[in-house]
Specification:
Blueprint: H1 2-13, H2 17-22, E1 26-27, E2 35-36, H3 38-48, H4 52-58, H5 62-76, H6 84-115, H7 121-139, H8 142-151, H9 165-204, H10 212-226, H11 229-242
Antiparallel strand pairs: 1-2
Helix pairs in contact: 1-3, 1-7, 5-6, 5-9, 6-7, 7-9, 8-9, 9-10
Length: 243
Protein backbone atom coordinates (compact mmCIF):
# COMPACT_ATOMS: atom_id res chain seq x y z
CA UNK A 1 0.00 0.00 0.00
CA UNK A 2 2.84 2.38 0.82
CA UNK A 3 4.48 1.73 -2.52
CA UNK A 4 1.27 2.48 -4.39
CA UNK A 5 0.60 5.51 -2.23
CA UNK A 6 4.02 6.83 -3.15
CA UNK A 7 3.21 6.52 -6.85
CA UNK A 8 -0.07 8.32 -6.32
CA UNK A 9 1.66 11.10 -4.42
CA UNK A 10 4.07 11.55 -7.29
CA UNK A 11 1.39 11.99 -9.93
CA UNK A 12 -0.70 14.24 -7.71
CA UNK A 13 2.15 16.46 -6.60
CA UNK A 14 3.49 16.85 -10.13
CA UNK A 15 0.10 18.07 -11.37
CA UNK A 16 -1.31 21.17 -9.72
CA UNK A 17 0.22 21.60 -6.25
CA UNK A 18 -0.81 25.24 -5.88
CA UNK A 19 -4.47 24.53 -6.56
CA UNK A 20 -4.41 21.51 -4.26
CA UNK A 21 -2.85 23.53 -1.46
CA UNK A 22 -5.49 26.23 -1.80
CA UNK A 23 -8.17 23.56 -1.40
CA UNK A 24 -6.53 22.23 1.74
CA UNK A 25 -5.40 19.01 0.06
CA UNK A 26 -1.72 19.86 0.51
CA UNK A 27 -0.03 20.82 3.74
CA UNK A 28 3.21 22.74 4.04
CA UNK A 29 6.05 21.29 6.02
CA UNK A 30 9.48 19.68 5.77
CA UNK A 31 12.35 20.50 3.50
CA UNK A 32 10.62 18.85 0.59
CA UNK A 33 7.93 21.54 0.37
CA UNK A 34 4.17 20.95 0.40
CA UNK A 35 2.91 17.41 0.96
CA UNK A 36 -0.50 15.81 0.84
CA UNK A 37 -2.63 16.23 3.91
CA UNK A 38 -3.50 13.14 5.95
CA UNK A 39 -7.13 12.81 4.71
CA UNK A 40 -5.99 13.12 1.11
CA UNK A 41 -3.27 10.50 1.64
CA UNK A 42 -5.92 8.10 2.92
CA UNK A 43 -8.20 8.82 -0.05
CA UNK A 44 -5.39 8.33 -2.57
CA UNK A 45 -4.22 5.19 -0.82
CA UNK A 46 -7.67 3.60 -0.80
CA UNK A 47 -8.14 4.48 -4.47
CA UNK A 48 -4.81 3.00 -5.48
CA UNK A 49 -5.56 -0.18 -3.54
CA UNK A 50 -7.88 -1.13 -6.40
CA UNK A 51 -4.79 -1.40 -8.61
CA UNK A 52 -2.91 -3.58 -6.14
CA UNK A 53 -4.02 -6.99 -7.55
CA UNK A 54 -2.97 -6.01 -11.08
CA UNK A 55 0.36 -4.71 -9.80
CA UNK A 56 1.06 -7.85 -7.79
CA UNK A 57 0.16 -10.14 -10.68
CA UNK A 58 2.06 -8.19 -13.33
CA UNK A 59 5.39 -7.00 -11.95
CA UNK A 60 6.26 -9.72 -9.44
CA UNK A 61 7.18 -13.43 -9.67
CA UNK A 62 3.49 -14.17 -9.04
CA UNK A 63 2.94 -14.21 -12.81
CA UNK A 64 5.41 -17.00 -13.58
CA UNK A 65 4.52 -19.03 -10.49
CA UNK A 66 0.76 -19.06 -11.09
CA UNK A 67 1.20 -19.94 -14.79
CA UNK A 68 3.45 -22.88 -13.94
CA UNK A 69 1.11 -24.14 -11.21
CA UNK A 70 -1.82 -23.94 -13.62
CA UNK A 71 0.06 -26.01 -16.22
CA UNK A 72 1.03 -28.51 -13.53
CA UNK A 73 -2.59 -29.02 -12.50
CA UNK A 74 -3.61 -29.47 -16.13
CA UNK A 75 -0.80 -31.98 -16.69
CA UNK A 76 -1.86 -34.00 -13.64
CA UNK A 77 -5.43 -34.03 -14.90
CA UNK A 78 -6.82 -33.41 -11.41
CA UNK A 79 -9.33 -30.80 -12.64
CA UNK A 80 -9.88 -28.49 -9.65
CA UNK A 81 -7.45 -30.11 -7.20
CA UNK A 82 -5.65 -28.25 -5.73
CA UNK A 83 -8.26 -25.50 -5.78
CA UNK A 84 -7.68 -22.03 -7.18
CA UNK A 85 -7.55 -20.59 -3.68
CA UNK A 86 -4.76 -22.96 -2.67
CA UNK A 87 -2.75 -22.28 -5.83
CA UNK A 88 -3.14 -18.52 -5.53
CA UNK A 89 -2.24 -18.64 -1.85
CA UNK A 90 0.92 -20.64 -2.55
CA UNK A 91 1.89 -18.29 -5.38
CA UNK A 92 1.25 -15.25 -3.17
CA UNK A 93 3.42 -16.42 -0.27
CA UNK A 94 6.23 -17.47 -2.60
CA UNK A 95 6.03 -14.04 -4.21
CA UNK A 96 6.24 -12.33 -0.80
CA UNK A 97 9.32 -14.38 0.04
CA UNK A 98 11.08 -13.31 -3.16
CA UNK A 99 9.97 -9.68 -3.19
CA UNK A 100 10.50 -8.88 0.50
CA UNK A 101 14.10 -7.61 0.11
CA UNK A 102 13.13 -5.49 -2.90
CA UNK A 103 10.11 -4.05 -1.08
CA UNK A 104 12.36 -3.09 1.83
CA UNK A 105 14.77 -1.33 -0.53
CA UNK A 106 11.88 0.57 -2.11
CA UNK A 107 10.60 1.60 1.32
CA UNK A 108 13.97 2.81 2.60
CA UNK A 109 15.00 4.52 -0.66
CA UNK A 110 11.71 6.16 -1.63
CA UNK A 111 9.08 6.21 1.09
CA UNK A 112 11.09 7.08 4.22
CA UNK A 113 12.78 10.18 2.70
CA UNK A 114 9.37 11.49 1.56
CA UNK A 115 7.73 11.04 4.96
CA UNK A 116 10.77 12.67 6.63
CA UNK A 117 10.56 15.64 4.29
CA UNK A 118 14.01 15.04 2.77
CA UNK A 119 12.62 14.39 -0.72
CA UNK A 120 9.62 15.54 -2.70
CA UNK A 121 7.12 12.90 -3.87
CA UNK A 122 8.59 13.11 -7.38
CA UNK A 123 12.13 12.58 -6.10
CA UNK A 124 10.96 9.82 -3.80
CA UNK A 125 9.29 8.07 -6.70
CA UNK A 126 12.48 8.26 -8.78
CA UNK A 127 14.57 6.81 -5.95
CA UNK A 128 12.03 4.21 -4.90
CA UNK A 129 11.52 2.82 -8.38
CA UNK A 130 15.22 2.03 -8.88
CA UNK A 131 15.20 -1.30 -6.96
CA UNK A 132 12.08 -2.37 -8.87
CA UNK A 133 13.70 -1.46 -12.20
CA UNK A 134 16.75 -3.52 -11.24
CA UNK A 135 14.53 -6.53 -10.59
CA UNK A 136 12.61 -6.14 -13.85
CA UNK A 137 15.80 -5.75 -15.91
CA UNK A 138 17.13 -9.05 -14.56
CA UNK A 139 14.24 -11.07 -16.00
CA UNK A 140 13.08 -9.04 -19.01
CA UNK A 141 14.43 -10.33 -22.29
CA UNK A 142 16.42 -7.96 -24.47
CA UNK A 143 14.16 -8.73 -27.43
CA UNK A 144 11.05 -7.67 -25.52
CA UNK A 145 12.72 -4.53 -24.19
CA UNK A 146 13.77 -3.57 -27.70
CA UNK A 147 10.22 -4.08 -28.94
CA UNK A 148 8.68 -1.70 -26.41
CA UNK A 149 11.47 0.86 -26.81
CA UNK A 150 10.61 0.97 -30.51
CA UNK A 151 6.85 1.09 -29.87
CA UNK A 152 7.20 3.94 -27.39
CA UNK A 153 9.59 5.78 -29.76
CA UNK A 154 11.87 6.39 -26.79
CA UNK A 155 15.57 7.14 -27.35
CA UNK A 156 17.82 4.10 -27.25
CA UNK A 157 19.11 3.66 -23.68
CA UNK A 158 22.85 3.60 -23.15
CA UNK A 159 22.60 1.56 -19.93
CA UNK A 160 19.85 -0.55 -18.33
CA UNK A 161 19.38 2.22 -15.76
CA UNK A 162 18.18 4.53 -18.56
CA UNK A 163 15.18 2.31 -19.31
CA UNK A 164 11.83 3.72 -18.28
CA UNK A 165 9.44 1.81 -16.06
CA UNK A 166 6.76 2.11 -18.77
CA UNK A 167 9.02 0.01 -21.04
CA UNK A 168 10.26 -2.48 -18.46
CA UNK A 169 6.85 -3.52 -17.12
CA UNK A 170 5.31 -4.82 -20.40
CA UNK A 171 8.66 -6.33 -21.42
CA UNK A 172 8.84 -8.16 -18.10
CA UNK A 173 5.28 -9.46 -18.46
CA UNK A 174 5.95 -10.88 -21.93
CA UNK A 175 9.21 -12.44 -20.78
CA UNK A 176 7.59 -14.06 -17.76
CA UNK A 177 4.73 -15.42 -19.87
CA UNK A 178 7.20 -17.06 -22.23
CA UNK A 179 9.24 -18.50 -19.37
CA UNK A 180 6.12 -19.82 -17.64
CA UNK A 181 4.91 -21.51 -20.82
CA UNK A 182 8.34 -23.06 -21.41
CA UNK A 183 8.38 -24.54 -17.91
CA UNK A 184 4.78 -25.70 -18.33
CA UNK A 185 5.61 -27.50 -21.58
CA UNK A 186 8.47 -29.35 -19.89
CA UNK A 187 6.16 -30.37 -17.03
CA UNK A 188 3.67 -31.80 -19.50
CA UNK A 189 6.13 -34.21 -21.16
CA UNK A 190 6.40 -37.01 -18.53
CA UNK A 191 2.65 -37.00 -17.93
CA UNK A 192 2.02 -37.05 -21.69
CA UNK A 193 4.12 -40.21 -21.94
CA UNK A 194 1.95 -41.89 -19.30
CA UNK A 195 -1.21 -40.85 -21.17
CA UNK A 196 0.15 -42.32 -24.42
CA UNK A 197 1.14 -45.60 -22.78
CA UNK A 198 -2.19 -46.03 -21.03
CA UNK A 199 -4.14 -45.13 -24.18
CA UNK A 200 -2.14 -47.66 -26.22
CA UNK A 201 -2.72 -50.42 -23.67
CA UNK A 202 -6.46 -49.79 -23.37
CA UNK A 203 -6.91 -49.76 -27.15
CA UNK A 204 -4.87 -52.92 -27.61
CA UNK A 205 -7.04 -54.88 -25.17
CA UNK A 206 -10.27 -53.46 -26.57
CA UNK A 207 -11.28 -51.20 -23.68
CA UNK A 208 -12.59 -48.50 -26.00
CA UNK A 209 -15.51 -47.50 -23.77
CA UNK A 210 -13.33 -46.62 -20.78
CA UNK A 211 -11.71 -43.17 -21.09
CA UNK A 212 -7.90 -43.52 -20.87
CA UNK A 213 -7.78 -40.40 -18.69
CA UNK A 214 -9.54 -42.22 -15.86
CA UNK A 215 -6.85 -44.91 -15.87
CA UNK A 216 -3.85 -42.64 -16.36
CA UNK A 217 -4.76 -40.16 -13.61
CA UNK A 218 -3.84 -42.45 -10.67
CA UNK A 219 -0.53 -43.34 -12.31
CA UNK A 220 0.34 -39.68 -12.89
CA UNK A 221 -0.52 -38.75 -9.32
CA UNK A 222 1.48 -41.72 -7.99
CA UNK A 223 4.51 -40.75 -10.09
CA UNK A 224 4.26 -37.14 -8.94
CA UNK A 225 4.09 -38.17 -5.27
CA UNK A 226 6.95 -40.67 -5.54
CA UNK A 227 9.36 -38.11 -6.99
CA UNK A 228 8.24 -35.47 -4.44
CA UNK A 229 6.95 -33.32 -7.25
CA UNK A 230 5.78 -30.33 -5.23
CA UNK A 231 9.21 -29.83 -3.69
CA UNK A 232 10.91 -30.20 -7.07
CA UNK A 233 8.59 -27.77 -8.85
CA UNK A 234 8.51 -25.11 -6.13
CA UNK A 235 12.23 -25.44 -5.47
CA UNK A 236 13.09 -25.04 -9.14
CA UNK A 237 10.80 -22.02 -9.45
CA UNK A 238 12.34 -20.31 -6.43
CA UNK A 239 15.90 -21.01 -7.60
CA UNK A 240 15.13 -19.53 -11.01
CA UNK A 241 14.59 -16.14 -9.34
CA UNK A 242 17.77 -16.24 -7.28
CA UNK A 243 20.19 -17.08 -10.09
Amino acid sequence: MKRLLLIGLFFFASGAPAAAQSLGLLSTGGKGGPTLSAPMQIAVGLTLLTLLPAVVMSITPFLRIVVVLHFLRQALGTQSTPSNQVMLGLAMFLTILIMQPIAQEIYHAGWEPVTDGRLTPAQGFEEGVKPLKGFLVRFAREKDIRLFVELSKAPAPRTPADLGIQVLIPAYILSELKTGFQIGAVLFLPFLVIDLVVASVTLSIGMVQLPPVMLSAPFKILLFVLVDGWTLVVGSLMKSFYQ
